[in-house]
Amino acid sequence: MKKKLPLLLRILVAIILIQTLRFKFTAHPDSVYIFTKVGLEPYGRIATGITELIAGILLLIPKTSWIGAMLALGIIGGAIMMHLTKLGIEINNDSGVLFITAVSTFVFSAIILWMERKEIKFF
């Protein structure tokens, strides 16, 4: 279980990050609404999508999973701050699903980073 849990968490976070890309890269109305509301449409939406793709890939590679977790923490931390300051918890009557997903992804990424801390070369 000690070796399976980090792998399961890495896969889960990667899936969450990668599955949202279709909304960002296809300019889904909800994604456009969110990034317009925070003043980052379209470049912020596309840059965030590219960064999430990179984080998702890095999470799936054992040697770079800690880098992916750190990147995910930064991205999702920004998303959480946008929810708390500009967007609100509920967006377009989603009952807070996007916010809950962001918080869960943040927590899972932090757990991954903690579990992979021995892989970080500068600590």
Automatic annotation (TrEMBL):
Bilayer-crossing regions: 7-23, 43-61, 66-84, 96-115
Keyword Membrane on entry: yes
InterPro entries named in the record: DoxX
Membrane topology label: Multi-pass membrane protein
Keywords: Membrane, Transmembrane, Transmembrane helix
Pfam families, sorted: DoxX
Coiled-coil regions listed in the entry: none
Subcellular localization: Membrane
Primary location class: membrane
Statement: the UniProt record of this protein carries the keyword Repeat: no
Name of this chain's protein: DoxX family membrane protein
